[in-house]
Prior knowledge:
Rossmann fold; 9 helices; 35% helix
Amino acid sequence: MTERSFLGKSIVSIRDLDKEDLDLILQEAEKMEKIIHSGKKPLDGKIMAALFLEPSTRTRLSFEAAMHRLGGYVITVSDPKSSSAAKGESLSDTIRTVENYSDIIVIRHPMEGSARLAAEFSSVPIINGGSGSEEHPTQALLDLYTLKKELKNIKGKRIAIVGDLKYGRTVHSLAYSLSKYKDVIIDFVSPPSLKIREEIKSDLTDAGIEFHEVESLSEVIARVDSIYMTRIQKERFAQESEYEKVKDAFVLTKKLLENTKGSIPVLHPLPRVNEISYDVDETNHAVYFKQIFNGVLVRMALLNMILGGKI
Length: 311
Ligand code: CP
């Protein structure tokens, strides 16, 4: 597998990437901090369209920052109400339009399968910036990058993934990506109504990954090497009353972290609501703000590889 194999490719699902692809992206991301300070413009003249038809702070701004850092240009839809999607335009027509303005499109859309559909219609590469409850592959890549930085090695590590495992797209992409690291063990911690999807469990089983499902973080906190907290996805619930029942299911506190086997890293894709108390921010466990910067590096690497920037 060479760097050139990403040239012109779309990133729709983490499942489309093998272990060598993941390693290559993480290696390229390592080089990007230097690029930021070098003044080089490997993507000078290239245009990225950020088509965000669902709210975002980190994904959109980090992709935009990444493109600027590489010397490229950005055009943006940041509010679905300000695009013609609000007038009933189909996603395929939107893509057939935006491809005329840009060399690559990053899309966030509330519908599962939206990024795959966009890639089918687009003549330029598509990057999935979050497709409904389904997947968020670039988040998984920055999560892997952060885990690798913090734990030195992902192989053989035990990771607790906590919160909304049913609707949390970052969880789905992370679980698939961890399954490429053979000796990883995953503890899925959720309320019964928000358990990890059956198809993901089936894929993990096929990949030979050991995983456990529990309902209490204190059951696993002493044995894991890292904790990945997630928000309960209020916007995905059909009934607000169902959300109310689970919204405070897990709150990670500084006190609870006294039970870990050391200064284990706590990750979170963010935004957080109340699932990590603010007193955790002052501890060595808190790496969720480092994740944000890592996201710029990983997205720089992806854009550069797909658009063929010379560094
Ligand atoms: N992690 C993440 O996807 O954050 P945003 O929703 O702010 O983009």
